Amino acid sequence: MPDHDTLYAALLARDPRFEGRALVGVTSTGIFCRLTCPARKPRADNCRWFADADAARAAGFRPCLRCHPEGRLPPLVATLEAALAADPARRWSEGDLRALGHDPSTVRRLFLRHRGTSFLTLARAARLRQGLAALTKGSAMIDAQLEAGFDSASGFRTAFARLFGHPPHRMQGAADLRADWIDTPLGGMIAIADDNALHLLEFTDRKALPQGLRRLSVLAGGRIGLGRSAVTDRTEAALQAFFAGRCGRLDVPVALRGTPFQVRVWQELQAIAPGATRSYAQLAAAIGRPTAMRAVAAANGANRLALVVPCHRVIGSDGSMTGYAGGLWRKERLIALERGYGIA
């Protein structure tokens, strides 16, 4: 365990690097928390430190109901996720939540805290995934539309275009690049690959995803279809090993589409070991451009190969979490996960 001063400083900063490494017990309340808990911070002399929840419970502390230090989801989140898994094509609304006795604002707040997105957004993504799977298998448009839970073809096309940047009929037939969905513990991802390399891997709720898809479509001459290749299967297997804690490096062949400067930055990102982080200044120095920190940050933001090109490993010079297109909550969880790999 780090010393008291280090842990207390991490508690005040809500430092995600200590996720899974330490918990704090507050003697004045009898509660133990994650160091990232949003609750009001205790005095330093009221803090005790524990390596895990079992040790904190054995010392007589009870778990915080805000940060859930035992890793358990609130029952409401678990219940609704189970309902979504049982019927992914269901069209959920705030009225449905009220009918089940839930306050929609409470549901939204809990899902944003624990999943980084709202329940209704997750439900919409699940429906789109159903439609995408049906189209990939060669289903007619009307069948895919009904399987996705949309009452009208225009509604399905609008939702699909919002995600992919163009209507679904443009993604059928022969294609050089093929798009498919991959599920991960941090949400769905869109993978686009050909027979030789991965060209795009993005979380489906990233705001810039349609823009990235349109740009890739232009670079590929519009030849993006639905389906997967052996590279897609390899990417999915690598992601499963990564999230299971078996391998910190996603060994997947990639096509880096960008300017020479961007490609150089992305290659340097790939050289950062799992469990390690770098600042923008360190990254700029590593590529021999120590004054190009802003350009390095821009190249970081232009990365379209999430996790495989690990731009989430770049943090502020002061150790703070900086922006991440996939959401800061994902960045915090990814860095916490990679701490378990050590630095190789």
From TrEMBL:
This is methylated-DNA--[protein]-cysteine S-methyltransferase. Zn(2+) binds at residues 33, 37, 64, 67. The active site is at 33 (nucleophile), 311 (nucleophile). It catalyses: a 6-O-methyl-2'-deoxyguanosine in DNA + L-cysteinyl-[protein] = S-methyl-L-cysteinyl-[protein] + a 2'-deoxyguanosine in DNA; a 4-O-methyl-thymidine in DNA + L-cysteinyl-[protein] = a thymidine in DNA + S-methyl-L-cysteinyl-[protein]. Its cofactor is Zn(2+). PANTHER family: METHYLATED-DNA--PROTEIN-CYSTEINE METHYLTRANSFERASE. It is an enzyme of class 2 (transferase). GO terms for biological process: DNA repair; methylation. It holds the Pfam family DNA_binding_1. InterPro entries: Ada-like_dom_sf (IPR035451), Ada_DNA_repair_Zn-bd (IPR004026), Bifunct_regulatory_prot_Ada (IPR016221), HTH_AraC (IPR018060), MethylDNA_cys_MeTrfase_AS (IPR001497), MethylDNA_cys_MeTrfase_DNA-bd (IPR014048), MethylDNA_cys_MeTrfase_DNAb (IPR036217), MGMT_N_sf (IPR036631). Residues 98-174 form the HTH araC/xylS-type domain. It comes from the Bacteria. Keywords: Activator, DNA damage, DNA repair, Metal-binding, Methyltransferase, Transferase, Zinc. One of its GO terms (molecular function) is sequence-specific DNA binding. Its EC number is 2.1.1.63.
